[in-house]
Amino acid sequence: MKLTLRVWRQKNADAPGAMSTYEVDGISQDMSFLEMLDTLNEELILAGDDPVAFDHDCREGICGACSLVINGDAHGPERTTTCQLHMRSFEDGDTIDVEPWRASAFPVVKDLVVDRSAFDRIIQAGGYISVPTGAAPEAHATPVPKPDADFAFEHAECIGCGACVAACPNGSAMLFTSAKINHLNVLPQGAPERETRVLDMVAQMDDEGFGGCTLTGECATACPKGIPLPSIAAMNKEWLRATRRARR
To answer: Which residues pair with 19 in a beta bridge?
Structure first.
């Protein structure tokens, strides 16, 4: 395959950025998108140019590091992570635009790499889970209803990639925050800090400068792990409940 790549190049958050055009040839349909970028970077290095900086780690669809907007879609045309997107999803001769996540809370570090530490601070604001000290409890000591366990596991699948923010026209982090809140608050182990957790995490999300949610649904559509849109409604119920109790 021969492709034309239009890649966002930006030295740092304060420097102006622009799209740069590159031609790559000999791309196999079996390559992942990141392997294709590796090929581009090898050519740039051999030519004495600065390689394109992009984020990656496990390359197995687990860590969520590979944050790219491809032809206007977070992670590209398939509902998966960028590292699991293969070049068979494109045609020979295609022009592909590659950009970083676009959100004020995710400043550009360099080229396609953005700083997503705002997500870390939201999680940190959630605090801890109360557990008794001593020996590990017996596995079945605290029964969890099957629907609650399924709900918790569904939301625990969130890998914090930020595709929900990049896809949202408002740059909202509601789907991410709701996933992190819901998978703890529905379990008995998370009950002691249930109210403070949702209040503190939502407050931190707002402080980070993410946009407001208008339920357009683009976040759930882009999520590679399928976190459902009703997750946001569940979090809102938790927040209203905690707010009312805090005012008493």
So the answer is: 8
